[in-house]
Design a protein that fits this description.
Blueprint lengths: L3 H14 L3 E2 L8 H12 L19 H12 L9 E6 L5 E6 L2 H18 L16 H11 L20 H11 E2 L1 H4 L1
Parallel strand pairs: 1-4
Antiparallel strand pairs: 2-3
Helix pairs in contact: 1-4, 2-4
Length: 185
């Protein structure tokens, strides 16, 4: 199997060219992608927060990764429900927060890295939200250097936007370029 970096670079090149992506699900058996994902999310301060089980990254091992990939290979992997807690917002209200179990976090990160490698080259350079190495500060830098005479700007936030997205429409959009029904199920 290819290294994570090699595979993600190939995916990135296909994304740049707008070529469809096939046989993605079988990459979920790639131990190197899980090791890379582990390295990325283990550093996160919330990584030790458990979901509905007490599983945390401290108990992670190559054997557990292998068991996870075997469950995926034979389509026996079961997502667990996220533990829901409410956290306070600045306005005094509370916001629900879902905390998945560690195995789900790890698999989500592998999937995210594949999707990001493919779609990131296709996004507009003018887009800054929820992008690697981009955000409010890069948007403001762009405004400062390219929009001479700007006196004001508007920031928007759509309440509960992600809670209201139609998953069937999202899957349909992904299916236009990702030709792998096992991955999209």
């Amino acid at each position: 199997m290819q290294t994570a970096q090699t595979y993600l670079e190939l995916v990135r090149e296909r994304g740049k060219k707008g070529l469809p992506l096939e046989r993605v699900y079988r990459q979920l058996f790639n131990r190197d992608l899980f090791l890379m994902a582990y390295g990325k999310i283990y550093r996160n301060t919330g990584a030790m927060t458990h979901g509905v089980t007490n599983e945390t990254p401290d108990g992670m091992s190559l054997e557990k990764i292998d068991a996870l990939t075997e469950a995926l290979r034979y389509e026996r992997y079961q997502w667990l429900p996220a533990r829901r807690v409410s956290i306070p917002k600045k306005n005094g209200k509370k916001r629900p927060l879902g905390m998945p179990v560690w195995s789900d976090k790890l698999l989500q990160e592998v999937m995210r890295s594949i999707l990001e490698a493919y779609y990131e080259p296709q996004f507009s350079d003018h887009s800054h939200g929820f992008r690697p190495n981009r955000g409010c500060h890069t948007a403001l830098e762009t405004l400062k250097h390219t929009w001479n005479g700007t006196r004001w700007f508007i920031e928007g936030d759509i309440a509960q936007c992600f809670d209201r997205l139609d998953h069937q429409i999202l899957l349909s959009i992904l299916g236009e370029k990702l030709h792998d029904n096992r991955f999209l199920r």
